[in-house]
Amino acid sequence: MMEIKYFDLAKISESFEPELSNTILRVTRSGWYILGREVGIFENNFAKFCGASHCIGVGNGLDALRVILMSYKQQYDWENDDEVIVPAFTFIASVESIVQSRLKPVFCDVSEDDCLIDTKKLESLISPKTRAIVCVHLYGRVCDISSIAKLSKKYNLKIIEDAAQAHGAVSQDNILAGNMGDAAAFSFYPTKNLGALGDAGAIVTNDDELAVIARKIANYGQERKYYHQYKGINSRLDEIQAAILNMKLNRLDEDNMKRRMIAEYYFENIRNPFVRLPYNSFFSKHSVYHVFPVFSEKRDLLQEYLASQGIETIIHYPILPNKQEAFKECNNLSFPIAEQICKQELSIPLHPLLTNDEIHYIVDTINHFVC
Ligand SMILES: *Cc1c(COP(=O)(O)O)cnc(C)c1O
Q1: Cα 87 from Cα 276, distance rounded (Å)
Q2: Which of 69, 89, 161, 224 lies 20 to 30 Å (CA to CA) from residue 118?
């Protein structure tokens, strides 16, 4: 029996040696740890990677979203409790960022096709208080951005991309994540496609004015040291993380390509009447497969069986944001498709360092599942 971790961080870090340790040592010796040369270089490189004009390093992905929303509140005088539409099926950060900016999340159910915000249901949720749509490129697939853009024009709404799972993903029109809307939030949490060795995040935008405000708000609202133009937060990208990200960015396209090849193998070879593959395999060229989801009415049994065969899996996500204890005020809302995905989804291992033997073992094991 093989033992396969869902995501092998130690192995991934090892694959960047000796450069990784040298990079850390270089920053250690530089004597400069916050907002310096390394952050500047990474911001330039990552903006270029996304094809956008600005990148602002921040402390994590949640803060990237929060700082975008806080900045827009300043820029356009949005009021407390103005509304922001967000998919009902996402990681909690997409929703927390709205609540913590004292705006109101309005949930939109997702589509069964791709687990992404259902653009057919969007328009009915727009009110005179709606200011923005957070589109989450979940699992590494980008949202149907052209439909969202039409609505944003018609109702004058900002499009904010939650691209925390989509570094390098492209739309059908070949537009990169980070360059599809008005502003985008990235996370470099260690397990993301581009991961730091700790928390890290970035805002990417083509909006010059937003970039200036966001940079200040992420740094205590300072215009210059000790002069505070806005009420801000402290969310800065560390020099050491920026240096690591810079180095890892060089391999991101290659790593995403490997993820796609593994995903393709899964699509072609997983065959089991109790396991459903994701729909829209057509989009495989465009996805960066942060997650490879499979679906089963016997999901929990499937997970137990795979664990018994040494294969670690994760459920993304077991409870919807609006059903969480922390969001009691929304517990009564119902989103049938999102709820169904919660019950059936199981993420199987997929990362660039999986070996052929491991991939074959995963497929064989899944194909032998009976219940
Ligand atoms: C990881 C993630 C975030 C938040 O990133 P952190 O860096 O952990 O704050 C936001 N949205 C989605 C969809 C994510 O997967």
Answers
A1: 23
A2: 69
